[in-house]
Amino acid sequence: MIESLISSKTKIKLLLKFFLNSNNSSYLRGLESEFDESSNAIRLELNKLEEAGLLRSNIQGNKKYFQANQSHPLFNDIYNILLKFTGLDSLFEKVINQLGELEHVFVVGNLAKGLSSEIIDLVFVGDIDKSYLFQLVQKAENELSKKIKYVCYLPSEFSEQKFIAYRKDYLLLWSN
């Protein structure tokens, strides 16, 4: 019973890690320290996900790196379920679609790393009404029961290349 619960928590962490941001890749020992879980539990779940074809792997040096298999028929379904699980899908409805002159929205922090979090960190790029954004975020926080932290950039202030070079933990959530 306890093993299946640990396995289930581990599987959710792995799915978040690899499917929420499909550019993420990692190896067993890295996941062990990141998740603070036993390597055996992680190894078992990695093997199951790889056997099911949901993860791909490649060897680099003496490390086996895993990454989401974006060509798997269930990739989009799993991604959409994870959006619902994290509350990011509601952000589309409640906030992003109502902001107007928006160019990009990035998720940063723990969610972008594929880790579960009670805080959603966002970067908005566009010429938007910040007071209206504040109202929308407050409503979304109440409905999601999560805190939302955000930063806004005007398009003239934002350089995507510099942002991406600076932030290793980002996920493009929306782009115009």
Based on the model shown, name its key terms.
alpha+beta; 8 helices; disordered N terminus; 3-stranded antiparallel beta sheet; 4-stranded mixed beta sheet; single chain; Beta Polymerase, domain 2; Arc Repressor Mutant, subunit A; 176 residues; 2 domains
General description of the model:
This protein is an alpha+beta fold. It folds into two domains: 2-68, Arc Repressor Mutant, subunit A (Orthogonal Bundle); 87-175, Beta Polymerase, domain 2 (2-Layer Sandwich). It is built from eight helices and seven strands. The strands form two sheets. A four-stranded mixed beta sheet has the order 6-5-4-7. α1 (2-20) crosses α3, α1 packs across α4 and α2 (28-35) packs across α3 (39-51). The protein is elongated.
Short description:
The chain has 176 residues and is α+β, with helices and mostly antiparallel strands. The chain folds into two domains: 2-68, Orthogonal Bundle (Arc Repressor Mutant, subunit A), CATH 1.10.10.10; 87-175, 2-Layer Sandwich (Beta Polymerase, domain 2).
